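Aim 2 progress update. The chain analyzed this quarter is reproduced below.
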Amino acid sequence: MRILHVIDTLGLGGAQTILKAVFDQQSEQDNIFIFALRQRDITIEINHPNITIYESTAKWSLAPIIALKNFVKEHNIDILHCHLFKSSVIGYLTKKLFCPQVKLIFHEHGQIVGSDTNSKTLDFVYDNFNRFASSSVDLFIAVSNAMKNLLVEKGKVRESKILTLYNFVDLDKFKNTFTQKEIDEYKKELNLNNNDFIVGFAGRIIPRKGWRTYIETAKILCSQYDDIRFLIAGDGADREEMLALIKQYNLSEKVHYLGYVKQMPKYYLSLNCFVMPSHFEGLPMSQLEVMALGVPLITTTGPGMDEIPQDNIDALFVKMKNPTDVAAKIIMLKEQTSLAQQLGQNAQSKVQKHSVKNYIEKLNKTYQVFRV
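Predicted structure tokens:
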């Protein structure tokens, strides 16, 4: 079978990270393809020959439909596997207008909870598009059971049409290959002391990622402890607002904003604990990454957040938008080193079954359902 993955762009993002790993791991497979609907300034590198990027930068243009139709026919594509909203719209129209024989898969990465911009209009359009298109979609893949339930509730998709396929972690990439000396040198580059207790955050700087809760937590703890430091990796629309709040709270010496971090394993390994204060996620890959490295995890229990980690076993759960609760759990890990160590060890054991290899095996088995 010949599978074409359709995605809006090959910029930075969770869906793109998934595709990169899947294609990097199958670099010699000539029956899988990626078609990106527009170009971005930053494009991830994928080690596979079958990558096509449509020559446009327009976010909502329908022009790629003809190019996609031609690609499907030229390469005898059997399955259109669509990631993210625009790709689903383009994939649906391509099937309905030109290629009724192809099987159509919509991959739900988390937008069913709500848009990143909190746009009620976009949420309404998205939910109703899923309802409208579902009769023509052969399979929905949800990254968590929470997303599956929301597809049923909000998208009115039949449960029998939805498969839950959890995201994965690249266990070869997210393992400790650094010496303690290298980690210490990295901390020194960030103006951190080896005796500092270092808390970390990573993600897009947008409201639903809970960055404000993280800064409020830093405000609480930095007024009480001289040896706690907070790191922030990532970028996003709220960056300037976040930096202004750090300055307003006089936290500039204790909260270090790093922007985009290329070497994430080293970043994670510099931490004493990782905080994920998100309001919701599809199934957060950063959760799995820190667990794979044995870094103690503090996470909220929003949709998609509590299906792999377990409270007091391999993570500590906190109430959403509650910096006091987050602060208390950070101090718990700071004072109870044996607890932190046990959580990290249990987490490393837990994520072994969520490897890229296992994910690809499950995905390819899913495609076989459509084999005639």
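The chain has a mean pLDDT of 94. The chain is about 40% helix and 15% strand. These observations will guide the mutagenesis experiments scheduled for the next reporting period.
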